[in-house]
Hints:
Blueprint: E1 23-36, E2 39-48, E3 51-56, E4 69-77, E5 83-90, E6 105-115, H1 126-133, H2 141-148, E7 153-164, E8 173-174, E9 183-184, H3 186-197, E10 208-213, E11 221-230, E12 233-242, H4 249-259, E13 289-290, E14 294-295, H5 302-307, E15 316-318, E16 323-329, E17 341-347, E18 350-357, E19 370-377, E20 384-386, E21 407-410, E22 415-422, E23 427-433, E24 446-447, E25 450-457, H6 474-489, E26 493-500, H7 501-504, E27 505-508, E28 513-516, E29 524-528, H8 535-542, E30 548-553, E31 556-561, E32 567-568, E33 576-586, E34 589-596, H9 599-610, E35 624-630, E36 643-649
Parallel strand pairs: 3-5, 6-7, 6-10, 10-12, 15-17, 25-26, 25-29, 29-34
Antiparallel strand pairs: 1-2, 1-4, 1-11, 2-3, 4-5, 8-9, 11-12, 13-14, 16-23, 17-18, 18-19, 19-20, 21-22, 22-23, 24-25, 27-28, 30-31, 31-32, 33-34, 33-35, 35-36
Helix pairs in contact: 6-9
Amino acid sequence: MKVITLLIIGLLLLPLSNADNSSTISGILHIFYGYYNDKYTTVYILEMDDGMIQLDMSLYTDVSKLDSKYVTLEGVFDQDGIFHVSAIRILDTVQVENVESSVTGEQAWVTILARFADVPTTPKEPEFFDNLLYNDTYPSLNHYWQDVSYNIISITGATYGWYDLPNNKVAYTDPSDPLCFTQPDFAKLLEDMTALADPYVDFNDYIGINLIYNDEIGNCVWGGSVSLTIDGSTRVYRVTFLSPAGLEHKFFAHEMGHGFGLPHSSGPYNYPYDSEWDVMSKGSSCRIIDPEFKCLAVDTISYHKELLGWIPSSNICEIGNNTITTIRLYPLENMSNGCMMIKVPISIDQFYTIEYRQRIGYDINVPDDAVIIHHVVETRDRPAQVIDIDNNGNPNDEGAMWRVGETFSDESNNISITIIEDMGDSYIISVSKSTLDLNNYTSSFINNETLNALFILGDSNPHVPTEWGAGAKVNDLIGSIGLASKLGQLSSSGSTNQVLDTVIATYNTTNNNVSIDWNNIESNMIVVGGPVVNLLAYHYDKIRILPFYLKWIGDKPYIHSSLSNMDYTFSDNKDKDYAIIGLIHDNERDVLIAWGLSWQGTNAALQLLQHYDTVYNNMLHGKAVILEWTDSNNNQLVDINDNITIVETW
């Protein structure tokens, strides 16, 4: 028989003699998350050498990063022995072996079953827990965590019991939690249940302990971590406390997630169990019910997978400052060679995450196939919260699902996220973290009254790799001269330069991409001419840098808008055309893009840019526009008497 030495022997609440005065106490901080039947609570425990003390942490929004850490706390005890914390200090010396923040490899959990002395029932046979936890087949929790972690972890272990506890149920309860009506005496349950199993279990072989008891204690089940001295070592173990009501797939997975160190996520409301996008929130829509294990848990969110080290850094696309880019985002459910998580920083501990969820695998129980955005603030108790634009209290409806053409904007942080295109197996997402605005486009080319701009014009020979590829018209050059003249008038020194697209860009037939020679580009650029005559316009159109792009219907070109799902094209008699103007940032350079469906549209875009502050004053806003040109005087030329209107703005 192995000898048990528990740090947690004694009463759960341990008031000191000077309870009315300020006190300083030190020990290991443990966080237990309780959940059942849409009720929730969080219990904070300080484990000291001679017992455990329940803490009131209401002055702090988030202490999740202190879980299982040695801390010194200042505060006062109340008459019930609860310590109200007013100050926290982390001790420099860690006195116990902690669990790793990243979770990899085999995760051995021992499951201990015990009956209260006055409750003789056996809710499930041991084989149920072996099947639920350790089988390799769907939908066991071993299979689930392998799937969720991309086969980075597996669950192993064994089930022991049922054992008979030495005391009646009341001896293992603590009525101090009003939300769950009562809560387990964690210390006493842990002490007695591990003692019953210790003759048969070497706890050094395990990192987690599932404690299963045969009757309800309050209305909650629990998960977290606890330090335990047993079998010759003191270690922090992942731990769950589960009653019969919690013995279904989504509850068990949720509490094991807390054992792995994951916090709750939620919608943007005051409730942590409302999001069906995360096992660490509501956990499932319960669309699919297993006959044995009941409601099956969904995957966890990208923020949590990053926390546990399950998404490689190469699959996380982080957006830098002064960036406008498009990213092809692949489903979170399966490992891919592409981007699985987009991260848009706001500050050191605040950012947005973007993920694509598909109803496949365990995510069959998410509300729908959709792009989901979370706002993450790492200093709050539920760091990741779903962006729910309709603010109706339900983070699982259309208000939380981002569809093609929809844009989320955080104007205070100059961030916008636009869903450009559904590729079937992925989504094209445009992310802008930039102060660029077309109403001030000239500042990209004039600095301290000094002009420096490079016009990129299409070669007159057909060279763009499409069946509609053509050579650029001389009209593009004429329109560029007008814009260059305008920029010259606004500056007192400097110059513009012109270069053909074929001088600085080549088409790679191996990967069907355009390679740009950035070493020969020393200034910000103005790209003139569309995707069929200019390699750079072709490149930016192909990667969907803007939510407006070229689309062919039959043999006729259209400008397609992802924002409105509208298609625009020129009239057959050439008296109407459409064009795009966009301002982006690429490779540390600002890039102004101007092109139309025909040379008339391109010239209309250049004319608008040339006279943006006079004839067309206050028409340019945002990062991109679609304009409509009408030949008002029917001379088949683009001139100042023609009508130009903005039909869409991004």
